[in-house]
Design goal:
2 copies of one chain form a homodimer. In chain A, about 45% of the residues lie in helices and about 15% in strands. With about 325 residues, chain A is an alpha/beta fold. The N and C termini of chain A lie far apart (about 80 Å).
């Protein structure tokens, strides 16, 4: 008897390897017709189903876990939505876990995803460097980090937008539009991407011979706090020559725009403004909001491609993939 | 020897039943201290661990599945975020599956969630009536529908916002503000909630002696299409007396506001506008957008409470819980 592989079975039945695996394990989606067809081929070829079924069951669930810190964040939910679509088209199902930026939750969900037997993991953003200590040393689960620095670079592939470029170009754009005292507005929580954006801002200042001074050039904000506007006005009082703000995200930019307007400080006439993320809403404000657009499609594509390579033991670990961003100019930053 | 139950063990150890189960199954989160404490009580009481562990493993995973049609939708992601927080605080983990409004995906994810052994299911929105045929007749998984009509009402508890009330009050508000020809703007996809909103709009017209005529009062829109603005202008040309629009969601309302502005049709002076969902962005536009606010907190609370009741075989099936909405008035609808 020829020794048929699962690949042969799939080829003869005219379905994917994933489908054969699902039929054998009775796990996931397939039509009754497909089931019959696959089982018929298995019978005809004498494929050693039981052993392979066990093997497959141990090794492949065709499920990928995603850890996301805040599913209500515009950019994160966009990336997750695309990841799911690409994975599904490739025969993988996605289970999403929302960690609410809590390390306790993250640990809990890591163990749960491990327990559910996911084949791989995609970790999105977060403040601390990511470490995944699999509780089962024999079966290490491959993982990919998006916008989140891995603790052990050699264990993973790190994908991120070029946050540095986005911040650098935004700041240069403000300067080219005539701003002599550009400011970066950011929250205190320093994620990997926030750090890169700050670096880009500082370097653009340096390139234009503006010495960075934290007190003059960094506006620390928290839009959740009621004293947001008060803080902004206090900062502007201390730094009356502020004429441009690069905001670390659109939500902060929109809140700044609203507060400035309310206090008769004209955008862009008195202060020019550029956000980050290019949320769906920036085009609806008056003035419309300039922003940095991340390429969620490309990020999701790279993430899936790299993870499937790692799962199939082909990918090169330790790599970093940096995806370019683009500046979308609207009314808020143009003279 | 007294026959101790898992509840007794939990009580003696001063932890929850869920924690005892997790320690026994070595599944999920607990500190080393908790583990020691629980195991000590088990030893002292002579609790029949093995049998119960098996039993628990068969019956309880302390995991809840959520099916959501579009995780990048503002309201859905808000509800999902809150569901996860409430469930986590009660000792349950949540796995989220995004169905991209596809019935094929929905079926696939239902089987996967079943395969992963979730204790219960929360189904959010969608166009068709929801039916869940468990593939294992012996172990029916309890489920809750949010904003999604169940096919078999007697199998579930149905929770939704009072979409009817939101639409009715918005339309009446437009009429009270002087609108004589209010219009409803909606997409073609008729979800459970969209149908209720249309009903509320029609009834408000009726109450104010305005006979509903589809051609005059219903503006069918699709913001994904490039002819959105063209359609709007064609509608206004045919119905020049249109002076108020109740929009089925904020995204459509914002797009309407932008197109109207672009064509020098003043909001609210010429046409008053009210949206639905009260997204974070409505307050940043000029004029700021009036909208209907759904109570995501209350919906999530009811959903978790009801689902845990069903899991513990206490809940009353066939019920419907309708959560009130509130009208947030801003500049776009006020004379």
């Amino acid at each position: 008897m020829t020794n048929y592989s699962i690949k042969d079975i799939a080829e003869i039945a005219g379905v994917s390897v994933a489908t054969v695996s699902r039929v054998i394990n009775d796990n996931g989606r397939f039509s009754e017709e497909t089931r019959k067809k696959v089982l018929k081929v298995i019978e005809e070829t004498g494929y050693k189903m039981n052993y392979s079924a066990k093997n497959l069951r141990m090794n492949k669930s065709f499920t990928i876990g995603i850890l996301v810190p805040d599913i209500s964040n515009y950019f994160f939910s966009d990336v997750v939505q695309r990841l799911e679509e690409i994975l599904f088209a490739k025969g993988y199902s996605t289970i999403i876990c929302n960690t609410s930026r809590s390390s306790e939750k993250e640990l809990a969900y890591l163990r749960i995803l491990e327990g559910k037997g996911v084949d791989g993991l995609i970790v999105i953003s977060g403040a601390e460097a990511f470490e995944f200590a699999s509780s089962n040393a024999e079966k290490k689960i491959p993982y990919i980090c998006i916008d989140r620095e891995p603790k052990k670079k050699e264990d993973t592939i790190f994908i991120s937008s070029n946050h540095y470029q986005g911040a650098f170009e935004s700041t240069e754009e403000l300067i080219h539009e005539g701003c002599q005292h550009p400011v970066i507005a950011m929250h205190n929580q320093k994620s990997t991407s926030a750090k890169e954006r700050l670096k880009g801002f500082k370097d653009a200042l340096k390139k234009n011979s503006i010495p960075f001074d934290q007190k003059q050039h960094l506006l620390a904000v928290d839009i959740e706090q009621s004293d947001f506007e008060e803080n902004l006005l206090a900062f502007l009082k201390k730094n009356p020559s502020t004429d441009g703000i690069f905001s670390i995200n659109d939500l902060i930019a929109l809140e700044l725009m609203r507060s400035l307007k309310k206090n008769q400080i004209a955008v862009p006439h008195k202060i020019k403004l550029i956000g980050f993320d290019d949320t769906a809403f920036g085009k609806y404000t008056t003035p419309s909001l300039s922003s940095v657009k991340q390429n969620a499609d490309l990020i999701a594509n790279y993430a899936v491609e790299s993870l499937l390579e790692l799962i199939n033991k082909k990918g090169e670990l330790g790599r970093q993939i940096i995806v370019p961003v683009s500046l979308v100019l609207r009314e808020s930053s143009i003279s």
